[in-house]
Amino acid sequence: MKNNIKTIDGKLLMGPGPTNIDRRIKSALSKEPLSHLDPDFFSILDNISSSLRSVFQTNNKVTFAVSGTGSSGMEMAMTNLIEEDDEVLILKNGEFGSRMENLAHRLKARVSTMSAKWGESFEQSLVIEKIKSMPNLKLVAVVQAETSTGVLQEIDLIGKHLKNTDAIFLVDAVTSLTGVSLKVDEWGIDSCFSGSQKCLSVPPGLAPITFNEKALLKIKNRKSPNSSWYFDLKMLINYWGEERVYHHTAPVNMLFALNEGLSICLQEGLEKRFERHKSNSKYFLALLDQAGLKPFVNQKKFKDLPMLKSVIIPEGIKDIELRSKMLINHDIEIGGGLGPTKGYIWRFGIMGFNSKKEFIDELFKKLTLYIN
Ligand code: PLP
User: Fold this and answer.
1) In the prediction, which pLDDT does 195 show?
2) pLDDT for residue 4
3) 147 CA to middle of ligand 1, Å?
């Protein structure tokens, strides 16, 4: 390998996910498969649900992993929780908020949005004011960690306000789960989804998700069935629940891997994991400063993500040329900008397994060959 990290076999993935993976995940992936209807496999499913409750910080019975990437978590949550003509509010300050807006339109909801510039987050009090002005509101959706910009959205007060209303609070925690504090029950989050390939450091392909009783009641009282068969929670719940009725062939080896990834997380401890992400984020920013580079998120006004650092591409450096050199010459992947930030920022992932000083050192050692 052309990078100096001896503990990984391949390329060093310092982009917005997937991350590199622990040896324990590799051995879980290469195990002999079990049938998705084998009682031994059901014990693994039970264990996954229980570990997911711990990382989501919830007691929600309906907590499981959708077969599919993070986007399947979004589809699972929104196709079940939104009906035609429902009034919904989507917070939009980057690519992933816009995707939820797009899906809400496809579901024929009456969609309102609040927008902030890419790289900025929302003042919670202003969101609550907007919610108060919408008495028929059925759902509010927000991204906790906007991976396209690197900004953190505070959500606790919005959730606590929505607890006393009929509206559902939906949170995209694809990048945030196990990298930054997320208290589903305490913060009044009714449904929340994530992805396996970010801070959990399991390959892409599963979307952890949780629904509370308020969300389940909304789904139970739907006037029309979910137009998606694959994502119909009313059916899938009979596989992940006690009945164990076949719905689709669960991706068994990916679930072995997720089980292992969750066990690694819980062995480390959530608080320690948050602390590790935080301290490596500080370390990254110190090296960034030494390299004469500037973060994209204005940290005086907004909180940046500890697991995803967005950086302004310095003048005179060609985005794709530099990323290609990092990949071809050093086997190091870094991410480019999306949408309006394409060619203007890079996105560096220091998530889960990859949140390590050694990896950050290697990244800057190679990056500075080209920028100074
Ligand atoms: N939401 C956020 C915040 C993301 O960062 C991503 C992917 O990067 C997604 C949703 C979509 O996840 P996936 O690409 O795994 O389908």
Assistant:
1) 98
2) 87
3) 8
- pLDDT over 70, % of the chain: 100
Nearest Cα residue to atom 5 of ligand 1: 147
What SS3 class is residue 70? Answer: helix
What integer pLDDT is reported at residue 3 of this predicted model? 86
Which ligand 1 atom minimizes the distance to the CA of 143?
3
Please report where in the chains the tokens 């995209």 appear, as a residue: 172
| Spatial distance between the Cα atoms of 88 and 86, rounded to a whole number of angstroms | 6
Atom of ligand 1 nearest to the CA of 207: 15
CA of 294 to the centre of ligand 1 (A): 25
Distance separating alpha carbons of residues 127 and 93, to the nearest angstrom: 13
Kindly state if the Cβ of 307 falls inside 6 Å of ligand 1: no
pLDDT in tens, 253-278: 999 999 999 999 999 999 999 999 99
Task: Give the C-alpha separation, 270 to 266, whole Å.
Answer: 6
| Three-state SS sequence of 276-295 | HHHHHHHHHHHHHHHCCCEE
Domains, the chain? 12-17+270-371 (3.90.1150.10), 23-266 (3.40.640.10)
Look-up of token digits 């068969």: 229
Asked if residue 172 has its Cβ within 6 Å of ligand 1, the reply is yes
CA 206–ligand 1 middle distance (angstroms): 11
Q: Tell me the pLDDT tens digit for each residue of 66-104.
A: 999 999 999 999 999 999 999 999 999 999 999 999 999
Between the CA of 70 and the centroid of ligand 1 the distance, in Å, is 5
Q: Which amino acid is at 216?
A: L
Asked whether the beta carbons of 52 and 185 are under 8 A apart, the reply is no
- Identify the residue whose C-alpha is closest to ligand 1 atom 13: 70
CA 98 from centre of chain = 15
Whole-prediction pTM: 0.98
> Which residues, at least 6 apart from 302, have a Cβ–Cβ distance to it below 8 Å?
119, 120, 121, 151, 152
Distance 133 CA to ligand 1 centre (A): 30
Instruction: Please spell the DSSP secondary structure of 155-181, one letter per residue.
Output: -HHHHHHHHTSS-EEEEE-TTTTTTS-
Cα(211)–Cα(233) distance, integer angstroms: 10
